[in-house]
Amino acid sequence: MLKEFNLKDFTISLQSTHIQLNISFLNKLLKVASKSLDPHKNKTFCNCINCPINKNKGVSTTVYGWMKGYRTIPFSKLVKIMGLTNFSWKELEQNLISIKSGIRKGEVYPVLPIHVDKDLGLIIGHIMGDGSIEKRFHSVFYSNSNLELLNEFSTCMKKIFGISPRIWVQDKPKFGETRWLKKLNNLNNIPNGHNVGLFYPKICSDILYTLFGKFAEGKNKIISKEILDSNINFKGGFIRAFFDDEGSVSSKNYTIRFHQDKEDILKGIIKMLKERDINSNPIRYYIKQNKLRYYFNITRFEEYSKFYEIIGCTSSNKQREFELLISGVKKNQYSKKI
Questions:
Q1: For the whole model, what pTM was predicted?
Q2: Residue 148, domain CATH
Q3: Does residue 107 belong to any structural domain of this protein?
């Protein structure tokens, strides 16, 4: 899998999205593509990119809107325009302002190229854990009560997509219900004991699907081939975030545990851990509320100490328990030597 993605890598998957460019660069691009000082009046050019001419005015109001900056360009048309010039995609990237799913839909301000690195791994790992990509509208969502994890997710999303989330506080849960209490402007204002939901526009999932396939849609989640084929830094972030959401540490039982409803997801986690030479116990299951719940443990000191050093966790509660676990084992080993 590529270690980074440029704008050109999205030309097929993001055809229906809209692009906003630096206005002076855009006008230069249109003039070169049309070989004209007035691209909006050039019938040959407008027909070539399938933009109709207003018969009364003798101009393409669509192209004119692009030139004046009050219309964004469909990516599919921008690709055609680029094909009529010698401009490089790198030049285009340098003049990119934003991408959005449609004319009026939420936009992002990505920093290109997008690197497949630990931060992106943290995002995908959290979506696979306590997050989701909503099935109907495909908005990216992450929910947690841990401020450290919420900050981690929003920081990584800001770094890659250049936007902050819509923040909603969830009412204290009742069985089978999800009620949203109020909207916040800042994560630091979360009321104690409440879960918080972070929401991002569809364009984020459009981009993530391009990179990693349809790995999450509603309750359906898989560790896709693209995730498994990613580099080791990405996988380290992925496992760390997933463990923060779906894992536990017990210093009393000398165990760390991953648990999940889908056995195949745990199989993928085990495969990625083995690439780091970290071995686990077999996957087991129990029944809770008439439903199978799968888990695997890591119980050998050599294995969970490697996990702590190489993968680690963001939750300070888990970190403290990890330190108790490792220091306790070392203390016992020292006592036995004496």
A1: 0.93
A2: 3.10.28.10
A3: no
